[in-house]
Amino acid sequence: MVKKPAPDAARRSEKSRRAIYAAALALVGEVGYPKTTVEGIAARAGVGKQTIYRWWPSKAEVLLEAFFDLSTQAAQEAGQAPYVIPDTGDLAADLKAVLRITVHQLVDPRFEAPSRALAAEGVVNEPLGREFVTKLLEPQLQLYVDRLHAAQDAGAVRADVDPRIALELFVSPLAQRWLQRTGPITYDYTDTLVDYALHGIGPQTPPSA
Description:
The chain is an all-alpha fold.
């Protein structure tokens, strides 16, 4: 009698985890954060409610982890390592490269609906907003700070520049345009943001004779 192989618990757990991610993101995009429940996520994912609570303490934790996972996938599909700003020695090229990954995410239909729902809820739901900033936004912003510090060390950015303020020159306009839908989100747009941030908008000073 042929013995059947034992079920692969790790593979089953990963399959359940993926189903929960997909269910959470779909629900928050369809009905919004307030109406998304652990029970609803479990039912849509085809798992028991206790399975979710065994891995996450709340729906917020589920959604934030699912969102992080989705962002990682989007970066990989764009051919880039997630949450990494390269240091090729060319600051403008490096910033443009990572902002293009962000554009890829922002225009991805899988990303847009849940991210808008979470962004809107974070404005009125302080605990969720704080968690979103702490777990997702702040680590990404710190990468910009580190890259700008490296550029200062290399002499590509003035030593008196505050990197935390400087990064807002290209990150904040992109976020505002996306949130308020004031214009298209394109590679050309983010490339221009970087050029304006690094070179200013005043007339170029001609080289001295």
